Amino acid sequence: MINYNTILIAGSAPNFPHGIIDDIVGLSRIALKRRVPLHVDACLGSFIIPFLEKAGFPTEPFDFRLRGVTSISCDTHKYGFAPKGNSVIMYRTREFRQYQYFVTATWPGGVYASPSIAGSRPGSLIAGTWASLMRQGENGYITSCASIINTRQSIESAIRETLSPDLYVLGEPKVSVVAFASRNLNVYEVADVMSEMGWHLSALQDPPAVHIACTRLTGEAVEALVGDLREAVKVVKLKGEGEKVGGKGKGRDAKKGDTAALYGVAGSLPNKSVVEGIALGFIDTLYKA
Question: Which CATH class is domain 182-287?
Answer without folding.
Answer: alpha beta
